[in-house]
Amino acid sequence: MGDRDRYSRFGMWLRAIVVIALVVTASCGDSRSCKIEDVLAEITAPQADDCGVLTADDTANNFAAAHDCVAAAIAAQRPFTVQWDLQGIDSRVARALVGSPAGAGVQYRLLAFDGDPSGGSSAGDPHTTTYLCANLVDQGDCADVRTSLCFDCSNSSVTDECP
After folding, report:
1. Cα-based distances in Å from 56 to 32, 62, 94, 127, 145
2. Which pTM was predicted?
3. What does the pLDDT look like over 95-128, one tens digit per residue?
4. Which residue, among 97, 90, 149, has the nearest Cα to 114 in the 3D structure?
């Protein structure tokens, strides 16, 4: 067998291996979890103030304490995280606010989670959308602390959609 045949066979095998690797990679897709807890863990600074994880059944006092924790972190320019469940119709719905270190300040994000946007089960097709907030505005005493924690993520833009 000559050198030319040997290189030709090597090239054929190399192309076959590359094609197989591409097919396997394409079939795997994005394997990260889109549950709000997992997305939150990816972007939360280790030194962040933990302002709570609230269920839809938590008391108004617990929601008010979480609001006050976030307000204090914003005022002190400290990183923070808070997560809360909303009352969903046919699946779990949740929100989270995150303050992450960014240069000399803090960058704010809102996470919006739906366990199954098409309806049906409680966690059949989890989706989390992450918004970058130009500013996180404290609305003070708002009508329902349970929906927004009384903060407005103003002039937001989507930075990530999972999946």
Report:
1. 26, 11, 9, 19, 11
2. 0.78
3. 999 999 999 999 999 999 998 887 765 557 899 9
4. 90
